[in-house]
Amino acid sequence: MINWLFVNYLRGKDNPPLPTQVTALAFLSSVVADGDVATDWLYYNDITTGEEDIPDWLITLQLVSCICGSLSWLGVATDGRFVSWVRSAAILIPALLVFIIAFPLHIIVHVLDRVDSYTGVFCLCFLELKDTMYENIKENVLTPLWLRAKQKPSFSSGTVLFFGILVEDIPQLVVTFLIEEKIKSDHPEGQISNAALVNLLFAIFDILHKLAQAYDLRKDVQNAGYAFKRTIKAHGFWVESLSLSGVNQILSSSFDTTAKLLDAVTGKCIQVFECESTVYGTVALGTSKVLAACKTAAFNNGGHIRMFDIATGALDYDLKLDFVPNFVCVYPADSGSFFTGGDQGLQRWHMPTESASTPQLISTYKVQGGVQSIAFLDNDTFVSCQGSSSVHVWHVNKEEPTHTIRANENDVQVWSVLAMSSTMFLIGNSNTKKGLIKSIEFVNNQWTICKTFDEHSNGIMSLTKINSSLFVSTSHDTTAKVWDITRAEPSSLFTFRGHISSVSSSVYLKEEQAVATGDKDGAIHIWSIGKYLKDEENQSLLQHAHNSDDDRISKRENQS
């Protein structure tokens, strides 16, 4: 009964109960599981208070079996929450011990800070310790442990049930047979006690029932927001951008001065591209070349677009820029040219060719305040965000924007832009107070803000398109969310919570029906969105069938 209540009334929207979990049969199964635990303890009470001479080791074994069974039952009854509580406690207890040791030392060095200088070298050593010790412990030990404790283990309900069979039902069945066999050997004329008989029947039924239930619930994933296919420890620091190179190959760029080509299936690094300074973005040129937008190693001295050979990782060409490039992207209508922009400019360049061995500048666009990113609405039109409240729409052959859209005053730092169609795009702000995403559509001959998506609690870091209706957002709040732009209510379909630091970038892996997200710690998590793609396909099929029925009815009415 308790499990049924937890499943039906305390689950979040990311993991709604299966249809089989809301039935009267599911309620009855939950009651039987509760009764099984109760009969275990009744039987233990019966053998400890009875007159039979049962060995202490058998009684102890029964007690251990009851305790394990109760813990297993708690895991199932609380819908997996008990497992999360135990895991969090196991992480927080060491963190508490570290804090108990570190905090008094922090107080001591603060007191010594006020002691006169004549106390000598001993005091000076402690003053130096004060500046680094507690902050290092807090940053490198306490904060990571706290973030780990907030994470929840992901597992299927079927796994929990099967584990319960192994640690509760089967041991309980064996122990009961051993005890009753001992009693019968002492009293050949005796019979199995009523408590033992009830316990045996419950145990046998519960084993068979749980095996069937575990099979049915094998895909009912608990804490699905924390589940991921694999993790790639790609870099030592921020994963600044992610993009695709061929099928299931990821290009990643980082603050650690490298760009890498990674296999999304195996997690192995295929190639490393050394850039000697921060890499803000990468893009593949077919299957042979990679472009990387890099900051110059010298402070405040512009940037580079570097071209690498994918097969060897060798640097083919280094294009010097007058500004630090925030991104680089290939022009979709002409793979022989690319766009780049940064703190002081937005430009389009031709790739090196046989006739021109160096990149040739095609256009310089008149921007104010720099460009953070751009997105192409079609082959002739693109939109740019400036890191301010203004968003500009451009024609590729015009140096000045054709439209300027100003968001609300709260959106003072529009950092991300994503094109969903030729007449609609999304913008995401990087404000620390609230991460807002807004859809802007071309309505009645003007660009208009239509919807606001406001579930993120911190700034938006990236936006990635899945298909014509689904997109993914990542945020400083350590989460990534899947959204459906066609929903009447702008609420997310799913929240991925597997990161413990700011989620800075994302890319869609179509072949795997998954999303790869990179974070501040240099980790890339790959997690599935197949369920939401299937739901959308099913809705499309239903809508198509509904439209076909309407067409047939309309034809009949016209014929009549």
Summed up:
The protein is α+β, with helices and mostly antiparallel strands and 560 residues long.
Radius of gyration: 31 Å
What percent of residues are in strands?
25-35%
> What spatial form do the alpha-carbon principal axes imply?
elongated
Summing up helix and strand content along with how strands pair, one would put the structural category as: alpha+beta
Give the termini distance in whole angstroms.
57 Å
Helix content: 25-40%
SS summary, helix count: 8
Let me know the largest β-sheet. Answer: 4 strands, antiparallel
Main-sheet strand order equals 3-30-29-28
Number of strands: 30
Overall residue-averaged pLDDT value: 80
Low-pLDDT residue intervals, each spanning 5 or more residues = 116-122
Folded structure, characterized:
By secondary structure, the chain is of the alpha+beta class. Among the domains are: 1-227, no CATH class; 534-560. The chain has helices spanning 2-9, 24-49, 56-77, 81-113, 121-150, 157-186, 194-216, 530-559, and strands at residues 155-156, 221-222, 230-233, 239-244, 249-254, 258-263, 269-274, 279-285, 289-295, 303-309, 315-321, 325-330, 337-342, 346-350, 360-365, 373-376, 381-385, 390-395, 403-406, 414-421, 424-429, 435-443, 446-456, 460-465, 470-475, 480-484, 492-496, 503-509, 514-519, 523-528. A hairpin with a 7-residue loop joins β9 and β10 (303-309). The relative contact order is 0.07. Mean pLDDT is 80; it is low at 116-122. Keywords: Membrane, Repeat, Transmembrane, Transmembrane helix, WD repeat. InterPro entries: WD40/YVTN_repeat-like_dom_sf, WD40_repeat_dom_sf, WD40_rpt. One of its GO terms (cellular component) is transferase complex. The chain crosses the membrane at residues 57-77, 89-109.
